[in-house]
From TrEMBL:
Name of the protein this chain belongs to: Secreted protein
Chain residue ranges for the region called Disordered: 28-54, 108-143
InterPro entries, A to Z: Glutamyl_endopeptidase, Peptidase_S1_PA, Peptidase_S1_PA_chymotrypsin
Signal sequence bounds: 1-26
Biased composition (Basic and acidic residues): 34-54
Highest rank taxon of the organism: Bacteria
Keywords: Signal
Length: 393
């Protein structure tokens, strides 16, 4: 164990190469990719009726008595257990036009995921001492220039409209034209005993100029609130461990609390990566915390003292957090960001470029640190499956 904690410099005066250089353009030619898709891809996206709902989903909806037209007309508000789709292959998220207007986005709340400091200190695995708090720093505006791949995720839950954070990531089967977004599992699925959340959209560089609540309420231009538009998730994937063991306090699923979205625009034909201008590679082989000098976490904290309208970041040397000896060890950094930053990407520099290595999952009630899963084989398999199934779309 590492019994002493020492603050690390932020990699010289450039501050993690211009604060992790989040606008670095993804590599790869636009015409690359995989030409042959496995059978699972065709079966998952086949649409015999041409109504935009894949056959496999249509069959599931019929089993649950869900009518697509009724759903779009307000039926999604019914959270009856029989209609709360929860299994991995049941994700359903049809576009509902004009649902997420500026006011509804502004009023959405955070889905807080916390554990008490006591719970964190009595684990049976290997943990380092809690880090000293790192005060979150507001990101420079405009966000689309300084942190282009970072954005805000909106979704509906039984408790109402909620928010998380997310990151545009590259797609190995669609180089240069990715439509993939990385976030936390608890931002798309309620975990044990629950199901998929609804009306999930990603808004890159939300509130681009960091306007105040009063300025937004007065009617900020749409191009400032959502400079790249709204991107609806047409498929989502999270870990089986989160679906089976995730809870409001993180639970046994916290170490597997990650998710990938495939999104599409409300209008237009360009990919998310082409529209935003960048996407980050995901590093599924990042070393343990002791092998990383600095990690940066980005997001939109929404719980007090924050209001979810401004993008923040924290940079710190990571330590280890183990919630149980049977669970994978998580990364942990000092950070004062609160709920709403959940799902926001954690980045490190590799060969001069930023790569995503984790996402915000849980933190303590006193908001002094954040913890995120270490991405490995399971996360890579999840990403690969979604990329192979949807990468050509």
């Amino acid at each position: 164990m590492r019994f002493s904690y020492r603050r690390q410099p932020l990699l010289a005066a450039t501050g993690l190469i211009a604060v992790l250089a989040l606008t670095a353009t993804a590599c790869g030619s636009a015409d690359g990719g995989t030409s042959d898709k496995p059978d699972v891809a065709a079966s998952r996206t086949a649409d015999r009726d041409g109504d935009g709902v894949p056959d496999v989903i249509a069959d599931r909806l019929e089993e649950h008595g869900v009518d697509v037209d009724d759903w779009q007309g307000g039926g999604w508000k019914d959270w009856d257990e029989e209609q709360w789709l929860g299994e991995a292959e049941e994700f359903f998220n049809p576009v509902i036009e004009d649902l997420w207007d500026a006011e509804r986005m502004r009023e959405a709340e955070d889905p807080a995921k916390t554990i008490s400091s006591q719970d964190a200190s009595v684990d049976q695995g290997v943990s380092d001492p809690p880090p000293a708090p790192v005060e979150a720093t507001p990101e420079k505006t405009p966000y689309h220039v300084n942190a282009g791949p970072v954005g805000k995720i909106f979704f509906d839950s039984p408790e109402g409209a909620m928010v998380c954070s997310g990151t545009v990531v590259s797609d190995e089967n669609r180089p240069g034209r990715s439509n993939l977004v990385w976030t936390a599992g608890h931002c798309v699925h309620a975990g044990s005993g629950g199901g998929w959340y609804r009306n999930i959209v990603f808004v890159p560089a939300y509130n681009d100029l960091g306007r105040s609540e009063e300025e937004l309420a007065a009617g900020a231009p749409a191009e400032e609130v959502a400079p790249f538009g709204q991107w609806w998730a047409d498929w989502a994937a999270t870990s089986d461990e989160w679906i089976a063991g995730g809870s409001q306090e993180g639970g046994a699923g916290a170490a597997y609390d990650y998710a990938v979205l495939h999104v599409k625009p409300e209008a237009g034909s360009k990919s998310l990566e082409e529209t935003v201008g960048s996407a980050l590679d995901v590093d599924f082989s990042a070393p343990a915390a002791s092998g990383i000098d600095s990690l940066g976490a980005w997001g939109y904290p929404a719980a007090p003292p924050y209001n979810g309208l401004t993008m923040f970041r924290c940079i710190d040397r990571p330590g280890r957090l183990s919630l149980d000896a049977s669970l994978p060890t998580m990364y942990r950094i000092g950070c004062t960001m609160t709920g709403g930053s959940s799902g926001g990407g954690w980045f490190r520099m590799v060969d001069g470029a930023p790569r995503l290595v984790s996402n915000t999952s849980i933190g303590p009630a006193d908001n002094t640190w954040l913890a995120g899963p270490r991405l490995g084989k399971g996360a890579k398999a999840l990403y690969d499956d979604l990329s192979m199934s949807y990468g050509g779309r």
